[in-house]
Amino acid sequence: MLHIVACIKQVPDTKIIKMNPKTNTMDRRTAPAILNPYDAHAVEEAVRLRERYGGTVSVLTMGPPPAVKAIKKCIEIGADEGYLITDRRFAGADTLATSYALTKALNKISKENPVDLIICGKMSIDGDTGQVGPGIARRLDIPPLTSVNKVIEINKQEGKAIVQRKLEDGYEVVQSTLPCLFSVEKTINEVPYAPFPNMLKAAKYNPYIWSVDDLEDVDIKQLGLKGSPTIVSKVWAPPKPEGGTMLEGNRQEQVEQLLSVLLEKKELFMTKGES
Amino acid sequence: MDFQDYQGVWVFIEEKDGAIAPVSLELLGAGRRLADKRGVELAGVLIGDHIKHLAKTLFEYGADLAYVYDDPIFKHYRTESFMKALLDCSAKYKPEIILYGATSTGKDLASAVATDLPTGLTADTTELDVEEDTGLLLASRPAFGGNIMATILCKKYRPQMATVRAKVMKALPPESGRLGRVVEESILLQEEDIRTKVLEIVKETTKKVRIDEADIIVAGGKGLGSAEGFQLVHQLAETLGGAVGASRDVVEAGWVEHAHQVGQTGVTVTPKIYIAIGISGAIQHIVGMKNSSLIIAINKDPQAPIFESCHYGIVGDAFEIVPLLIDRFQEVMSKEGVSHV
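^ Those are the sequences you sent over. The predicted structure of the assembly is below.
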């Protein structure tokens, strides 16, 4: 029986979010909060592994109270339990402080039911770093396996996992000891529409909610903004490039102008010919 | 922590099959500029098996010295073994700045090293500078999904670290015969100490042109409306003999695989011709293609930001323009073909 924990994040939908051009800050009201799309694949993979090997899937997140909604989304995908750590003292955390807080929560979860495997999404769409997963692994002193795009085998008896890691020009097959941490590519699976019973369960589900005081051995100095070595010093809209020449006229005229622009680089096309 | 003890700019050198990754040479170029501004040395850190001979390449591309960990245990990249070597080197020689390519290996390694040191790490940097007097690294990157740029600082910890996008910085022209110091290092590490094993490496040779190597890229965005509409991009790419690129939302919608994504979270490209069709031009996309030699944009929306980042733009419906372009191009090229016989 495996205990798999997927670490997830609620994020503003950065595709929709609008910037306030005066202050260069995100206008959060314009963007709905969603489950980070990469994390849906992490939860889905955890659920599939539970179906293969049996066990429990927990999800863990840090965030403000409304992040419960993202946990419910994971219950819809098929997670069994959800944990939210929420506290003002967590606020403003960079990747280092985030991995610290999540590790403390993972230690607490592990006391009840030892964790065999942690799965994270490749990265979050608002932070775009992919640094929290490996950070958690280092803090727990378990091997991090990033860019995982296929889980070949998990063998708890032998204490090993075998996965495919995506590389720039192919993939590698890696064996690791258990417990370990995967951060998974989106290509690892497809997340189907939630089955109806899961949606019912999610609607009624209340996750565990912990504050800093519920966690053990926490060094407050390592949390939130205070525990974050990186700071954003300046945010700016990059200078607008000057823009190019617009090709005017009717369709035919536009296409002819475009054609002559392309043909100025004729050598690129000639080499590909039959000659 | 006494900041005076931390000196020098380092670049983690990524090596594969006996060759240095281009991004590492680009970072030596960027690192040289930072090191000169601070009046310190630039070092490359080489970790691998039978890689010592590569040190001279680092010197040709601007490094003053090379820290070399040459041992069979480093034959394949593994987080734990490489991290231990780099942590050992950093503890011994205390650099002020360490740069990594924002490749899967570079990001994996940097994330682990940053946690153990601990220090701050800025991901996917696209602009680098350093304060001459304080040595503070100014690492800038598109943020919040690429809507704006942000400069990230790490004021209280050393070394300062950043992963840097490929093809954004420029490598120096190699200076043949330029010399430097080789510092050979080793750590006590047994195979049993490493908890992961690489069982197999499989190269996937795709028939299609890789977008990071293509001279011509035709890229499509959400403006094409659907996966069927995106076929237009494939058609034009095929006609021109180019590769297919895509914006992030197209990849997220599943119209095309991630390998085709151009931009901050995809691939940075510098082709000779880049044609953007139905791509609005969020910063996240622009940073990945702005160094292309010729950028052509086709978009229905005259306000689309892509028109500010292109050399030539057409406001109009791609479904009218592109098929016409394909026809005319084939017509002209077939005539050219005849005249060349």
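Chain A has a mean pLDDT of 92. Chain A touches chain B through 88 residues (CB under 8 Å).

Shout if you want it in another format.
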